[in-house]
Amino acid sequence: MFKFISKSLHHVRSDARASPFHNLCFIQIHAFSSSFKPIKKYPNQHSFTVSYLINSCGFSPEKALSASKYVKFETPDKPNSVLKFLKSQGFPKTQISSIIRIYPSLLLCDPKKTLLPKLEFLKSKGVSRTDIIRIVCTSPTILKRSLDKIVSPSFDFFRNLFQSEEKTLTAIKSYGGLLLFDRQTHVTPNIETLREAGVPNANIMFLLTNQPRAFMASSDRFGMIVKEVEKMGFDPSTMNFVLAIFALRKMTKSTWEKKVEVYKKWGWSEDEILAAFKMRPWCMTVSEDKINGVMDFLVNKMGLDSSFVARRPKLISLSLEKRIVPRCAVYQVLLSKGLIKSNGISLSTLLQSPEKCFLEKVVDKHKEETPDLLKLYKEKLDLAK
């Protein structure tokens, strides 16, 4: 059954990108700090630019040399003004470094003419400073695109589409690059494809609001993914239909196959994997390490049958450290004291219950017989911090 999945998924490209905040050096300009020691100059015609990118922006020598082919300046005045401006707008040093590393040419712009208008536009729409920083850090290109020709018209387009400024802001906060979409190439035709497939408008808007990256595909590619989801047997009228589209859109064929092999290693059949995906599309979006970690704990430490988890794929999405381990510790104590029976309270229900419900119906219910139960639970939670 999974042969047809592999055949079609070779067109699906990965959206995964490395986090822009990983292993960054702090920015250092004279106004920030003087802790960096001068570095030796590089035998390059743009050695000042290279030195500045390393000293002030946290670039590696290799990245600095590469960037200097496209970004050139002989004095620090203009780049300093950009760094100081971003700092004055509340951007932390590491995030400033991230932005510049992604988009070095920002160092050559006029902050007041190029950067400030976009920040003021977002602020005028009710976006908080924290959200503005997150939007810019994930989509720094927004700072150099035309406000009048691209950013503002895109905002108006989505506001008309959602019929709500609040939902528009939710979508933008989810992914700031939404304002940079080619609306005619991506959004409009892909929405029409979903409508033709019978997807309710409410579900389309939900996907666009909460997972806008799913629409970052050409109409042909998006249509192929929709057809693949239909072949898998998803009902277009359900929310899982659009969630499956998002799941397939964000992974490559090889990534899908690797995760299939991981589940097979734990004894799942191809039919079980497909059934789990149809029940809970998120079970194929988690990492291989996450799958192995949850399965190892539930099967080898808790003694559950692998098929038990296959029939409850939501368990794979739960946090191992913050949810599964602490609650299973509580479950084992209650079981050892005879307060619950192994064939009584469902472990899967206990694991999936909202926090308030779990505390009230499990922990508080047995506080007289096991007064240290809450303490144990909190200790396990603390270990996850």
Number of helices: 22
Poorly predicted segments: 1-45
Estimate the mean pLDDT confidence. 86
Range of strand content: under 5%
Helix content: 55-70%
* Rg of Cα set: 25 Å
What is the succession of H and E elements?
HHHHHHHHHHHHHHHHHHHHHH
Secondary structural class? mainly alpha
Shape: globular
Give the distance, in angstroms, between the N- and C-terminal Cα atoms.
41 Å
User: Number of DSSP strands?
Assistant: 0
How would you characterize the largest beta sheet? Answer: none
InterPro entries: MTERF, MTERF_sf
Family: Belongs to the mTERF family.
Pfam families: mTERF
Protein name: Mitochondrial transcription termination factor family protein
Characterize the structure shown.
The chain is mostly helical and 385 residues long. The chain has a domain at 318-383. The protein is built from 22 helices and no strands. InterPro entries: MTERF, MTERF_sf.
What's the short story on this structure?
Pfam families: mTERF (PF02536). By secondary structure, the protein is mostly helical.
Give short descriptive properties of this protein.
22 helices; globular; disordered N terminus; mainly alpha; about 375 residues
List the helices and strands and how they pair.
Blueprint: H1 3-9, H2 47-57, H3 61-67, H4 77-88, H5 93-102, H6 111-124, H7 129-138, H8 147-162, H9 165-174, H10 187-196, H11 201-210, H12 219-231, H13 239-249, H14 253-265, H15 270-279, H16 288-301, H17 306-310, H18 314-317, H19 320-336, H20 347-352, H21 355-363, H22 373-383
Helix pairs in contact: 1-12, 2-3, 5-7, 8-9, 10-12, 12-13, 19-22
